[in-house]
Design brief:
- 2 copies of one chain form a homodimer.
- With about 240 residues, chain A is α+β, with helices and mostly antiparallel strands.
- Chain A contains 7 helices and 15 strands.
- Chain A folds into 2 domains: about 5-145, Jelly Rolls, CATH 2.60.120; about 150-230, Arc Repressor Mutant, subunit A (Orthogonal Bundle).
- Helices cover about 35% and strands about 25% of the residues of chain A.
- In chain A, helix 4 (about 150-160) crosses helix 7 and helix 5 crosses helix 6 (about 190-205).
- The relative contact order of chain A is 0.13.
- At the A-B interface, strand 7, strand 9, helix 2 and helix 3 of A face strand 7, strand 9, helix 2 and helix 3 of B.
- The structure holds a DNA duplex (30 and 30 nucleotides).
Chain lengths: ~240, ~240
DNA sequence: CGGAATCTTGATACTGGTCAACTAGAGTGG
DNA sequence: CCACTCTAGTTGACCAGTATCAAGATTCCG
């Protein structure tokens, strides 16, 4: 079918993400694209490596991380179907990308992609829109990490998974969690222990149902949304009778 | 002199930010640009307004904020000289922009700018690079808010000001702080009280010198860098004898 | 079935938030 | 020019939430 980029369009009236590329654009991109597959745990690229390609995910989940000065790894973002990753700076990748599941991607060699974008302003505009989309996500993430408590952070994270149709297991209510607790912890800025505690608390409160380590269901959408809205104080006894 | 965009170039070998626009591009942009001035406290635009123009700052400082579900305002970013702001989504501004000082900008009407970008891929590529730059800043901000303590956050914020030459008062070591404590607090994800306490602590530790409310000097660059590096534990007695 | 991760749970410490009082500056009007 | 006032900022005491440290429980995988 060819590469695909989902994002909220810049100018179109919609607030809902949609496919940005026209049939013709997808064909053009196919032309320079390679299909590449990665096993779970494999690296798509590492930070400080010279940037050679940009990836468009077709299946699977990828996380990107940066190494802090003290050696800790910090998860920057998760990438799902129809996302673009491999944005670079001064010719070098600024993050490390690791496959969390087995992953299928289109790979655009930068040497082919950049000329294509410079020649085709409309196509470039769609890449541009996708990056703006990522910018908003990153800004929202900063906001969440700066001001929200553990329950809200976890709720937002679960909502992120819920929003991705490919995380829903075959029609049922079960949503898969492709990453392990420490990935989640790195992403939401908590410790593994706090992630675990918070998940269990939401589980015991009946808001979610934890189905093993790598799946969950949303049992009380309203309560979850209230948490995400940021309206609920931590001492809300209705939500956290077990506190 | 015309509009100017500073950022780390995508492909060039440099990691240092530099002017991205060619003389010719600046001329083209001048052609569609209006000069607009704002008093301190004035709004350049408000969230949910229809997006009509994009701004390029020539002088002054702007903050952008979003309103949370519970009514709190949260500062998303500060914009300085040669920055671009007014990025939008689905035709509407997603943030509110307020002048912190008196501000001079070039204003590009979107109706003129978008066609120009669609016609001129190289120019668009420079806007693209600037947005990628902002994306990295936002991701770094998320990282900082998620993992660092108060001292590190404040140190990073002071470093941000230091990096902007126009914040340095006439050659001297004094750096101006154009925003008030609550803006800082909103930005770094702390309360006003914690910002105050942390600034005073850095002051008493001799790392910075607070010169009134709206200026400071860096007295111990090495210690500040160590904080920023994230290497220093909060209990480091060399840095915080007063703890 | 056994060993090794991963995850959960509990006890305690510490950072930063909250609430409240106090101080310093900036502006105002007599 | 000097009180007066009002806002912004600082400081202190106390508390809540999360990190940390330390076991235990599960799950995964050979």
């Amino acid at each position: 079918m060819g590469p695909a980029i989902y994002a909220i369009p810049l100018c179109g009236g919609t607030t809902a993400p949609r496919q940005l590329l026209s049939f013709e654009e997808r064909r053009k991109l196919s032309h320079i694209a390679l299909i590449r597959r990665f096993e779970a745990g494999a690296f798509l690229f590492r930070e400080t490596e010279q940037a050679t390609e940009i990836f468009n995910i077709v299946a699977g989940v990828v996380k990107t991380t940066t190494t802090l000065a003290d050696g800790r790894q910090s998860t920057v973002a998760f990438f799902f179907n129809h996302d673009l990753l491999g944005m670079f700076e001064a010719g070098y990748y600024s993050q490390t990308a690791e496959a969390l599941t087995s992953v299928t991607t289109y790979s655009f060699p930068i040497d082919s992609l950049v000329p294509l974008l410079r020649k085709d302003p409309d196509l470039q505009f769609h890449f541009f829109s996708k990056v703006l989309d990522e910018l908003r996500v990153a800004q929202r993430q900063a906001l969440v990490l700066g001001r929200f408590g553990a329950a809200q952070r976890i709720a937002l994270f679960l909502d992120l998974l819920d929003r991705h149709p490919e995380m829903h297991r075959s029609g049922g209510p079960s949503i898969s969690i492709p990453m392990d607790r420490s990935d989640i912890a790195d992403y939401v800025g908590l410790t593994v222990e706090s992630v675990s505690r918070t998940l269990q608390r939401l589980h015991r409160a009946g808001i979610i149902y934890l189905d093993g380590r790598h799946a969950f269901e949303i049992r009380d959408r309203v309560a979850l949304d209230r948490l995400i809205g940021g309206t609920v104080a931590a001492d809300d006894q209705t939500l956290f009778p077990a506190l």
